Amino acid sequence: MGGKKKLSLKQIERMQARKDKQEKKKSKKTELREMKTAMIAPPDIKDKGVIKEIRKMRVLTPYTVATHLNMRISAAKQFLTQLEEHGVIKIVTGDHNLKIYEVAD
Description:
By secondary structure, the chain is mainly α. The chain folds into two domains: 7-35; 48-103, Arc Repressor Mutant, subunit A (Orthogonal Bundle), CATH 1.10.10.10. 52% of the residues lie in helices and 10% in strands. It has four helices and two strands. It has helices spanning 9-32, 48-56, 62-69, 73-86; strands spanning 89-94, 99-103. Helix 3 packs across helix 4. It starts with 8 loop residues before the first helix and ends with a strand. The relative contact order is 0.12.
């Protein structure tokens, strides 16, 4: 008596086209997610290449260091405090949220 009607060929083709379109969108999204992951641990302070990159920068904030060296902001904050303790950089201004550093001469 009741039940689902049998779909026509045109309806089946439309459903298949929609599925294909959705699968393409999903594959594009997964391609975008395949980016490099940022470093979690800060780099070594004794690494000459990293120190050379830091010296080229005029103003040092956790965000600029994190984007330039491809690391997380929390790791960049740790790295900047370690550099300050070793005397490579000095703090210019800042509060508990954001500190701005510059290269020590």
